[in-house]
Structures are given as structure tokens and as C-alpha cells.
Specification:
6-stranded antiparallel beta sheet, 551 residues, 9-stranded parallel beta sheet, alpha+beta, 8 helices, binds alpha-D-galactopyranuronic acid, single chain, Immunoglobulin-like
């Protein structure tokens, strides 16, 4: 399942989930899509190239659009042997079009690569695992020569009234100009416009409307509306796209974050897309289980560390009224990594694809960038600045942030709307939590962060599931719970702080190649409050109790 709601009623679509043929290093397999090849017993640690193929039958000559929600991490897509797309990054969707496919059987071939090297600036050995495979759903669509590429919905609230701007982006892939009519329907309001689209061109139309009787989207009040766009040509409906939207506005003022004019405190988890038996291709059932567990722990927010998430999970957040901090893909890249010749382009692509594809999710209230990268250097600062600028050019409605660990040396705190810091008091550093936090906030205020909301983007400690020890020693469940309790008690009772995200929701696999990550017990980051099978540690109940106290 590609999304949690219907996207098309006119455009014919077919999901390509199922068993695909797969070859790697001369061996053949039958692997599930979506899925990670590491879940096969012969490929547990395989890093390199693999080829997926699938035969599809097309009933009558048509244009085919393939939508890939995620391939990890590089994909070359071929249709009947002809290359139709190249894409880098496991965590952003992309589409590929094959024109005029004849009636009959065709072959889709996806060459996938998860190797590390200069070609990959963002996927490097890291404190999470870079799996291989077609890891998110794929769909096949039959499109006419003119079709709706995407919709951009921007709600606003002024003088007690809701209004919205709806932009419909249309593509003409045919060799002739077309006269078309675009119609939209949203919450009972209709709009219509006739326009010309040039041959092989893209155009867009913007509708501005007022809405009198709207129930806004809010934390825990997930009011959603279907936004339908339809295209017709010569009196015949030829295409449609349905989005699901919510009316809400996010503002940052007087050091607070406001949602629909009310100040909010974010109580959340950092969540990696990783599950013991799924790898990063987390199944819908396991996503729902994660969401249920997080909500049961009284969380109202989630941070998609450290990359854009599967759209079905974002759909769930929309449906549950959970606030999302979504971030581009980057974790712990030092200056050397940022100087990779592909770094700026790959970050730019990731941000563009993240915002183009996820702009309409009401749950996303913050865009994050570059977790713990070289924000203490001049060259790093230039790149942070460039990325914030790119985000603001694409989206003026959401605040920006970045989680820093460059304590007392960061020179980028003046750039985002919200200042966020990762803090491991009592785990990596034996210090007084409150004193350390005061020191940090003082420094933030004097280093460009004054008058900005502050979020503690990571706080946590590790424990091995099931390891109990009454001495409350390090790595015991008891010690983890103590550390989390002490930290949350400080941050959640400090008026200067607008949110806190526990590191992390669930234990995740880390890479063994390179870096110090291989020293992590079990080759996992064990700071989950649940383990990789979602078995709760003592700290789960601690977070639940602490989050409940704070409304
Ligand atoms: C960092 C980082 C996380 C994780 C964490 C830890 O702050 O952002 O990805 O590595 O520390 O467990 O140490």
C-alpha cells in the first residue's frame, strides 16, 4: 500500500508490491518488494549492487509512470532495457516515465546499489544501517499526455477566517500544446480554470479560496479534508489527483512555537525506520504498532531522524494528530564529509524532493537539516545557510531548525527559526543535568539564539533489553530509566524550552564498517525505550509517566 488514502479515481494505478526476481553476485533470489535484501539469510550483510526485475502487462498502448517511494540507496531504472531514471538517496520518492508503451508484456529492471564511497555523500557508515533494496512501495500508473504532477496546498488564518491557496502543477509530455480545464473540490468549495499547456512543458494554476466552515487540524484533533483536482481535455476527464490536507498554521514568536495561535510543547521520540524483522522496510502493521506505542507513552510529536520518512507513516501522523519534525538526510557529517564533491547537490536534491512530496502533510510543523554536522566551521556555516535559504524559497510557512552537538562552538545558531541541541547529560557526560542545561541555554542566548524557541532534540541513555541490575549500573534498564527521568524533569519544567525528543524510540541496527559504531554492543544503538522487537524497557513507562505530567 503506497498511501493510506485513495490518490486517484480517474488515473489507472496498480501497485507493484509483491515478489520480484533479484540477482546479486551471480546468484538468483525471489525477494519481496517493498523489502530489504538483508532480511534474506544469504544476504544478511551484503553491501553492493543487486538487480530487481518484474514483468508487467499493459492492456493497450499508453504512457507509463512508475512511482518509487524509496530505493536504498541508488537506483537506475530501466523499462524494456531503456534507462528512464537515475536516483540517489534511500529516503525520497521519485518517478520515471516511459512513453508510448505498446500493448503486451514489458520488463521493469531496477539496478540498486547500497555501497559506500565518494558517489554517496549522505549514506556513509553511520549510527544507523544503510540497507539495500526497493525498500518502500512502487506503483505503476497509466497517464495521458497531460497529467497532474502534484498539488501544493497552503492554508492561512487571518482575521478569524481560514483561506487557502491551492496550486496545481501540470505536465504535458506530448509533442503538441493542449487546451485543458482544471477543477478542484475541497470541503464543498469548487473552482475551475481553463488554460493552455505548451508542448513538452510544465505549468501551474493557483486557486485562492476562503472557507467559512472549517474544522482546523490540531494536535490530537486530526481534522482532514480530501482535496480533489481533475483535468479535462475536449470535454473528457483525463486525469485526477487526490490529496489529503488539513487547515493549520505554525508560527514562531516570543520564543514559543504556536499552532493555530496556541503555544505548543513538543513531547516526542526520535524514531529510526528500523524494525528487527523488516530492516528499514517497516511494514504498515509495524508502523501502526510504533504509532500506538508512542501515543500510549503520551507523545504528541515525532522526529524523523535523520531523513525523510515513508509517506504512509506521515499519513498516520496526519491521521493521529501527531506533530512531526521532518529532516533532510544527514547525520554526524564532519567537514571532510561535507567537502565530498557530491554533498551539496545530494543535500539540495533531498531537500527539494522532501518538500515537494511532503508539503501537504499538516502534521509536519518543522523542517530540520544537517543533524550534528560541521556547524562550528565557516565552510559548514555557508552550507547551513544555503540549505535554510533553499527551504525558505520552497516553504515560507514552516519554521526551520537543526540539532547541534557543537556545544559552545556552533556558529550557526542565528540561522534557523528554532534552536535545537542534543544533550546526553548523565550518559556520555557525568554532570548535573540542570546546571549543564542552564549553561547551554545561556550560551545559546549569547550566540545568536536569543528570542528563539529552544528544543532539546535528543536526550537519552542506553540499556540492553532484559538486563536488570539492582546496582542500577550502566546498560541496565534501571539506569536508563533513571537518566531519562532526571533529564526530562529538568527540560519539561523549564519555561525557556519548547519541546523535548527522547533518543530514541527503538533500538536500531548500526553499520559495522568504519567509524566507532562497531563498538556499539550488539551492533545496535541500544538507546531505544523499546528494543528492536518493540519490547518495552523500564524507561518506556518512565517516559509515559513524565509525558503524562506535562500537558
Ligand atoms: C547523536 C546522534 C544520534 C545518535 C546519538 C547517540 O546525537 O544525533 O544519531 O548517534 O547521538 O546515540 O549517541
Amino acid at each position: 500500500m503506497i498511501r493510506l488514502f485513495e490518490n486517484h479515481r480517474v488515473r489507472e494505478t496498480r501497485e507493484l508490491d509483491g515478489i520480484w526476481d533479484f540477482t546479486a553476485e551471480g546468484k538468483s533470489f525471489k525477494l519481496p518488494v517493498p523489502g530489504c535484501w538483508e532480511q534474506h539469510p544469504d544476504l544478511l550483510c551484503y553491501r553492493g549492487k543487486g538487480i530487481y526485475t518484474k514483468k508487467v502487462y499493459i492492456k493497450q498502448s499508453s504512457n507509463i509512470r512508475l512511482e518509487f517511494k524509496g530505493v536504498s540507496h541508488t537506483a537506475d531504472v530501466y523499462f524494456d532495457g531503456v534507462k528512464i531514471a537515475h536516483h540517489y538517496n534511500a529516503f525520497t520518492p521519485f518517478a520515471a516515465v516511459a512513453e508510448n508503451a505498446a500493448e503486451g508484456e514489458h520488463e521493469i529492471r531496477v539496478e540498486v546499489d547500497n555501497s559506500f564511497g565518494e558517489h554517496s555523500a549522505l549514506h556513509i557508515p553511520n549510527d544507523y544501517y544503510t540497507y539495500g533494496g526497493i525498500t518502500r512501495p512502487v506503483s505503476l500508473e497509466i497517464i495521458s499526455g497531460v497529467y497532474i504532477e502534484r498539488i501544493r496546498f497552503t492554508p492561512s488564518f487571518n482575521n478569524g477566517k481560514w483561506s487557502a491557496e491551492t496550486e496545481i502543477i501540470i505536465k504535458n509530455i506530448s509533442a503538441v500544446p493542449k487546451k485543458i480545464t482544471v477543477k478542484t473540490t475541497l470541503a464543498g468549495a469548487k473552482s475551475e480554470r481553463a488554460l493552455d499547456v505548451g508542448a513538452a512543458a510544465e505549468t501551474s494554476v493557483i486557486f485562492k479560496q476562503n472557507f467559512d466552515d472549517i474544522k482546523p487540524w490540531f494536535v490530537g484533533e486530526p481534522n482532514l479534508y480530501a482535496l480533489t483536482a481533475e483535468l479535462s481535455c475536449g470535454g473528457k476527464i483525463i486525469d485526477d489527483l487526490i490529496e489529503r490536507v488539513g487547515f493549520r498554521v505554525v508560527e514562531v514568536k516570543e520564543s514559543k512555537i504556536y499552532l493555530n495561535g496556541k503555544p505548543v510543547f513538543l513531547k516526542g521520540f526520535n524514531r529510526h525506520e528500523d524494525y528487527a524483522v523488516d530492516g528499514c522496510a517497516v511494514s504498515l502493521q509495524h508502523m501502526v504498532q510504533d504509532m500506538d506505542l508512542m501515543q500510549n507513552a503520551n507523545a504528541n510529536a515525532v522526529r524523523t531522524c535523520h531523513y525523510p520518512n515513508d509517506e504512509r507513516f506521515l499519513d498516520l501522523c496526519d491521521e493521529r494528530g501527531i506533530m512531526v519534525w521532518e529532516e533532510n538526510h544527514a547525520r554526524g557529517l564532519g567537514l571532510n564529509d561535507m567537502q565530498n564533491p557530491n554533498f551539496e547537490r545530494q543535500c539540495g536534491d533531498c531537500i527539494r524532493e522532501m518538500i515537494e512530496n511532503h508539503y501537504n502533510h499538516p502534521s509536519i510543523v518543522i523542517w530540520g537539516i544537517l543533524n550534528e554536522c560541521a556547524s562550528e566551521t565557516d565552510e559548514g556555516r555557508r552550507m547551513y545557510k544555503k540549505q535554510y535559504k533553499q527551504i525558505k524559497a520552497m516553504d515560507k510557512t514552516r519554521p526551520t531548525t537543526s540539532a547541534t552537538c557543537r556545544h559552545f562552538t556552533d556558529i550557526c545558531l542565528d540561522l534557523p527559526d528554532v534552536v535545537s541541541f542534543n544533550m546526553y547529560s548523565k550518559w556520555y557526560q557525568d554532570c548535573d543535568v540542570s546546571e549543564r542545561s542552564n549553561e547551554e541555554i545561556e550560551w545559546i542566548y549569547n550566540s545568536g539564539g536569543a528570542n528563539k524557541p529552544i528544543i532539546v532534540s535528543e536526550v537519552g541513555a542506553a540499556a540492553i533489553y532484559g538486563y536488570r541490575d539492582r546496582s542500577r549500573c550502566k546498560w541496565s534498564e534501571e539506569r536508563q530509566a533513571d537518566i531519562i527521568r532526571e533529564n526530562l524533569a529538568v527540560y519539561m519544567n523549564d519555561e525557556r524550552i519548547s519541546g523535548v525528543f527522547v533518543w530514541q524510540f527503538a533500538d536500531c541496527r548500526v553499520t559495522e564498517e568504519g567509524g566507532w559504531f562497531q563498538s556499539r554492543a550488539r551492533c545496535r544503538n541500544n538507546k531505544g525505550v523499546v528494543d528492536e522487537y518493540r519490547r518495552p524497557k523500564i524507561a518506556y513507562d518512565t517516559v509515559r509517566e513524565m509525558f503524562e505530567k506535562h500537558h
